[in-house]
Amino acid sequence: MAGIPELERFFREAGGVDVDKADLDRYRAFVDEKVDDIAIAGRDSARWNNRDVIAPQDLPITKGLQERMREFAKLDTSDDMREVIGQNLRRPPDDVTFGDETEGVLTEVFGGLSLALARSFRIIDPEVPNPSSAHWDRAFELFRMVT
Questions:
Q1: Is the pLDDT of residue 1 over 50?
Q2: Of 3, 5, 48, 113, most Cβ neighbours within 10 A?
Q3: CA neighbours within 13 Å on the CB side: how many for 21?
Q4: Domain 4-146's class?
């Protein structure tokens, strides 16, 4: 499956954990869920500002996410992960339109979110070498609480 070697290297570098082929599907589910969350928040912000198209300033980017985005950009694996993210980033709901500039920012947003996800496993279980389904479920719950 395309993306597995890149995802493995990224999670090892970003979070010190090993992922496998089954984790690619979990990662895709994470990205799909976050696409919807970001799209809906961005759509609502754009509408509040009387726009139909989501601009970068409409995206729900917190200070913590900004920091993770900067850290993501510095990783050795960031270029490969940009490709993985681009391949796995599905379209938002039909009532959401991202502007061209926003489309470019999304890869970095998802790079930052991916970095936070990789690091969350060690917060959930400092000794985990390879996240299990339970670890992924806990990470999803953490992200649902704050995003």
A1: no
A2: 113
A3: 2
A4: mainly alpha
User: How far is Cα 126 from Cα 122, in angstroms, rounded to an integer?
Assistant: 4
CA–CA dist 132, 64 (Å, integer) = 26
Domain-wise residue ranges, the chain: 4-146
CA distance 56 to 105: 7
Single-letter residue type at 40: I
The DSSP annotation for 3-45 comes to THHHHHHHHHHHHS----HHHHHHHHHHHHHHHHHHHHHHHHH
Each residue of 36-80: pLDDT tens digit? 899 999 999 999 999 999 999 999 999 999 999 999 999 999 999
Chain centre to alpha carbon of residue 13 = 16
Q: Which two tokens stand for residue 139?
A: 């990470």
Helix, strand and coil percent figures for the chain, each rounded to 5:
70, 0, 25
